[in-house]
């Protein structure tokens, strides 16, 4: 007669030791009732293993003193960055277990630990600094914007953290914190903003509402002095017909008031110079007298040599 699976093990991954403690053997775990996730880590077959479950399983595999970090930690804070499929965990253990699919990082000091969806995770500020070892400056800024937008940190907290600490990745993260802007609400919105700033154009305002009680237009990025609106158009496929019509109507009304719209699509992110030049030309047409865009080595490194965000 099959061994009854205790209720707690039906809702989460579990280790071989846990299974043995309730009477399950290694041979039992090879049966159709179970799925194998990592060495000596299992789950019942019908348990959906989402991202958080996979991280929890990885921590069981590595050991009790492992903590989600790097891009994995950011993802637990609802900020997607990079495209590394591995689960990243950090530990103070001298000889941590290592296995396929899990990147284990050893550190002497880990700092604050939070718990999200059962997973132990380092602080959002520490995860951002760690991720600086893998991400470009532009991706790092977008991730920092996302942490603030989700309410996990503030600009002041980030400034304090990068000022007081000296972990690997801190130099790039300090540069990123200079560019992080509260108010940005999407990853690609942040990328376009950084694209403009690193080229020497003024920093646009993010998600500001314009109009009166009868007409309110909320613009992704804007230069109110020159009446330029910049919008990322990647969300259109997810909108209803009524929402799309409202967007069109809103743009028409803003254009009647003298605004010029520069629309950026996902495909155009692969032509970053074109985006910058289009914005600059629109600004000049509205009286901008500032410097022309300058595509420095820092700009090229972020937007031409490592265009990983175009996906």
List keywords for this structure.
alpha+beta, three-stranded antiparallel beta sheet, elongated
How many structural units, i.e. domains?
A: 3
How confident is the prediction overall: mean pLDDT?
92
Strand percent estimate: 15-25%
* Stretches with pLDDT under 50, minimum 5 residues: none
One letter per element, helices H and strands E, the order comes to EHHEEHEHEEEEHHHHHEEEHEHH
By DSSP, the count of extended strands is 12
Main beta sheet: 4 strands, mixed
Q: Pairing-aware structural class of the strands and helices?
A: alpha+beta
CA(first)-CA(last) distance: 51 Å
Q: Given the structure, what is the number of helices? A: 12
Q: Could you say which overall geometry the principal axes of the C-alpha atoms support?
A: elongated
Integer-rounded radius of gyration = 24 Å
* Helical residue percent band: 25-40%
What strand line-up does the widest sheet have?
9-10-11-12
Describe the structure.
The longest helix is centred in the C-terminal third of the chain and has 16 residues. This protein is 38% helix and 18% strand. The protein has three domains: 43 residues, no CATH class; 128 residues, no CATH class; 117 residues, Endonuclease, Chain A. Strands 9-10-11-12 form a four-stranded mixed sheet. With 311 residues, the chain is of the alpha+beta class. The mean pLDDT is 92.
């Amino acid at each position: 007669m099959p061994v009854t699976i205790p209720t707690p093990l039906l809702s989460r991954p579990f280790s071989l030791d846990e299974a043995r403690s309730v009477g399950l053997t290694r041979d039992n775990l090879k049966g159709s009732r179970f799925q194998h996730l990592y060495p000596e880590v299992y789950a019942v077959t019908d348990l959906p293993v989402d991202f958080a479950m996979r991280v929890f399983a990885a921590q069981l595999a590595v050991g009790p003193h492992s903590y989600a970090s790097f891009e994995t930690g950011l993802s637990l804070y609802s900020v997607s960055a990079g495209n590394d499929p591995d689960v990243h965990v950090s530990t103070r253990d001298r000889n941590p277990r290592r296995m396929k699919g899990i990147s284990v990082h050893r550190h002497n000091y880990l700092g604050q630990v939070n718990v999200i969806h059962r997973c132990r995770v380092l602080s959002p500020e520490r995860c951002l600094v760690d991720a600086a070892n893998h991400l470009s400056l532009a991706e790092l800024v977008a991730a920092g914007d996302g942490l603030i937008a989700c309410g996990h940190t503030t600009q002041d907290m980030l400034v304090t953290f990068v000022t007081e600490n000296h972990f690997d990745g801190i130099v790039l993260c300090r540069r990123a914190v200079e560019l992080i802007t509260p108010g940005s609400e999407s990853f690609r919105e942040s990328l376009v903003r950084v694209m403009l700033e690193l080229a020497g154009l003024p920093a646009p305002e993010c998600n500001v509402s314009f109009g009166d009680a009868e007409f309110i237009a909320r613009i992704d990025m804007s230069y109110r002095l020159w009446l330029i609106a910049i919008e990322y158009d990647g969300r259109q496929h997810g909108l209803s017909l009524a929402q799309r019509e409202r967007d069109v109507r809103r743009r028409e009304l803003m254009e009647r008031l003298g605004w010029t719209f520069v629309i950026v699509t996902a495909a155009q992110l692969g032509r970053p110079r074109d985006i910058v030049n289009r914005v600059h030309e629109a600004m000049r047409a509205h009286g901008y007298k500032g410097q022309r865009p300058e595509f420095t080595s820092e700009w090229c490194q972020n937007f031409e040599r490592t265009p990983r965000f175009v996906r």
